[in-house]
Amino acid sequence: MITANFLLAGVGGQGTLLASDIVADIGMRVGADVKKSEVHGMSQRGGAVTSHVRWGGRVSSPLCEKGAVDYFIAQEMLEALRWIEFVKPGGTVLLSRQQIVPTSTVYGADQYPVDDHVVATIKKVAGTVLLIDAKKTAEELGNARVANSVLLGALSAQMGMPPDDWLAVITVRVPQRHVELNRQAFFAGREKDWRI
Amino acid sequence: MTKKQLLSGNEALARGAWEAGVEVAAAYPGTPSTEILENVSRYPEIYSEWSANEKVALDVAIGAAYAGKRAMATMKHVGLNVASESLFYASYTGVNAGLVIVNADDPGLHSSQNEQDNRHYAKFAKVPMLEPSDSQEAKEMVGAALELSEQFDTPVILRTTTRTSHAKSIVELGERKTLPKRPYEKNPQKYVMIPGFAKRRHPVVEERMKKLEAYAETCPYNKVEMGGLELGIVATGPSYQYARDVFPTASFLKLGMVWPMPKKLIAEFASKVKRLIVVEELDPFFEENIRIMGIQAEGKSIFPLVDEFSPEVVRKSAHAAGLIDAPPIEHQLDKGALPMRPPVLCAGCGHRDVFWVLRKLKVTVNSDIGCYALGVMPPLNASDTIGCMGASIGVAAGMRRGDLEGPNVAVIGDSTFFHAGMPPLANAIYNQTPFTTIVVDNRTTGMTGHQGNPSSGMTLHHDMHPTVDIEKVVRGMGVDEVYKVESRDLDDFEDAVKKAVKSNKPAVVIAYTPCVFVTSHPREAYTIVEEDCNGCTMCFRIGCPAIYKSTVMDDKHNRPKALIDPLACVGCGLCFDVCARQAILEGVLKQEATLTTHVA
């Protein structure tokens, strides 16, 4: 039985919930007990979105405990820094090289953190960091919206799992007309070594 | 093979209603309960509706239960405050067919004005309460609650919290039960709560509570799970799940039936363990009631009284109290100050126009519950008070009577107006209190995810029914000073507010401002003309999420110019209106704006 804690973090509109639904479905498909929890009340209004997914024999808490996340999928640089404390010492961070600027940096004095600071801080916690050009890769394939499949492809490789279950779930979960593009994005993420 | 699905607590509650043969369900939307009725609406066997408010929803459900069909009303925790009067009479009258009230508390105030603990309502109204700790239990407990309701002739509250409602876990699906309709028999002594009859119902209620206490001893949702005898944990809901992770070797008493509590079972469990520890979010409800039984219990001396629990909150508290050896993992990191992402009004939201003008007019703003509550956030900083649904108008009247210096206005949305805004407006007319009410009519219940309401006429099932016209309503109520304007036209809106305030009478301005999610976007994105922009920051101050600081600096003032994100901009034009340098280019008109019935 695979036991794993996942945290996904992004900003409203990035598809955090769909990506976490896919991770949860894959857990069910491989026979795990699965729980998933998220806070999404304000996501439509530009808020931060996090989603916790847990696989195990018998999962109790639907929330991952701080310091116990095995795989942190960060869809945005600032959100990666915000939630890094959830990762267990030596855990794995999949970091999408994307910035979404909060409005408080526009009307106020808030500063968006610089990439080097984000990466250096994450490295203090994580054992493995993958810096992934998810959005750029997706755009090169023709649609920025398949960026999450790039991340999921990289995750599947990092977990040492064969692609079949992942592709089966992605096929069901994404709109029919985008299945092929998502498949390409999945493999683009899976086949490249993003480790830094 | 049984079919298994990963369902949220709210999806499971809807499924549970369907399986248990519920035939009537009513609700007013409210986070975290909204999705229950949205999911119920997919089952054609159940009549379901958005009601005008939670009290109406509960009355509808009570009436359906009287008439003989299993019924459900759902609401968020503060919704039960609105519906509480109905809860209390229904406790006395009892039901005919089963009645379940699903109540979703919000520890942590993810989207609420307080974090009240509604377990107290069960004790207060003398009705039983169940609480699930995952989706499977949520589904089952709807049926269990209805059985209890019919067996003991009482409404039953099924309490969830945000975590249980929104977390997903695996559920085994079952089939729908079909039940014969229970005939309604006229029985005024039971259903008419005039004092003489109600007085005779009170002993019936007390007798019922005794029977329910006896039932609680054998209720299958009160489970003892013996482990080590050092610690005995009493918990329910999500707290039970966190505690299972933090205390893997302890003994557990899981109280799925929150009220009434099983005295013998608790005493027996307490006698077997060295320390009885209650892990419960919010108030010490179990702890106090266990102590009233004369049993030693610890709870709030260890765990916090405020905010939502999480595994780390439970672990940290337990470690500090010496209950466990393993400390929580806490990384020491120097992250610097991180910008927050508070919710903001959407790009193109008409409420922004309203607050832009109100701030300019320097009036005191008594606001209300809805998306427009975000008008209090920077950079608009427009609102002075927000309390609960409908409070804007009554508080505005009171501030007027309290001789507030300078004018004040009430701001209330269309859905909130029909929910709780009409009585205080009638009051203002009746007492001729001179202040202006601004109804921001965006034709939807936005904050909870764009549900229909009497103003839009769109039902839970997305059918279009006749709309209740706010202008006709307020004129019919007796307001003479009525102005209906599109807030997008800033000058018209400003003019209307000035005239209304100046009238020194109870006045109403209807600011028609359809939500960007229920209208087509008439214009393409606006653009900044880089050479004309000098980075004056005027457009930054409207707080539009489509406007950014450019990396291009204005040389003269050494400050960043503005930039508009063409994907986020919906072409509302407020930035164009506030730009003093005509440095913004209007988007191309695609079509006339039209209301759409489609919602996300």
What descriptors fit this protein?
heterodimer, A: 196 residues, alpha/beta, Pyruvate-ferredoxin Oxidoreductase, domain 3, globular, B: 600 residues, Rossmann fold, 4 domains, 20 helices, 35% helix
Strand content of chain B: 15-25%
The total of helices of chain A stands at 8
Q: N-to-C terminal Cα separation of chain A, in Å?
A: 30 Å
- Can you tell me the CATH superfamily of chain A? Pyruvate-ferredoxin oxidoreductase, PFOR, domain III
Count of individual domains of chain A: 1
By CATH, the superfamily of the largest domain in chain B comes out as Thiamin diphosphate (ThDP)-binding fold, Pyr/PP domains
Topology:
The complex is a heterodimer of chains A (196) and B (600).
Chain A: E1 4-11, H1 16-29, E2 33-39, E3 48-56, E4 69-74, H2 77-83, E5 87-96, H3 104-107, H4 115-125, E6 128-132, H5 134-141, H6 147-158, H7 163-173, H8 179-191
Parallel strand pairs in A: 1-4, 4-5, 5-6
Antiparallel strand pairs in A: 1-3, 2-3
Helix pairs in contact in A: 1-7, 2-4, 5-6, 5-8, 6-8
Chain B: E1 4-8, H1 9-19, E2 24-27, H2 34-40, E3 47-50, H3 54-67, E4 71-76, H4 77-82, H5 84-93, E5 99-105, H6 119-125, E6 129-130, H7 135-152, E7 156-161, H8 162-166, E8 168-172, H9 188-191, H10 195-216, E9 222-225, E10 231-235, H11 237-246, E11 251-255, E12 257-259, H12 263-272, E13 275-279, H13 285-292, H14 311-320, H15 350-361, E14 364-366, H16 391-401, E15 408-413, H17 414-430, E16 436-441, H18 470-477, E17 481-486, H19 490-502, E18 507-512, E19 527-528, E20 547-554, E21 559-564, H20 574-578, E22 584-585
Parallel strand pairs in B: 2-3, 2-4, 4-5, 5-7, 6-7, 10-11, 10-13, 14-15, 15-16, 16-18, 17-18
Antiparallel strand pairs in B: 1-8, 6-12, 9-11, 19-22, 20-21
Helix pairs in contact in B: 1-2, 1-7, 3-5, 11-14, 15-19, 16-17
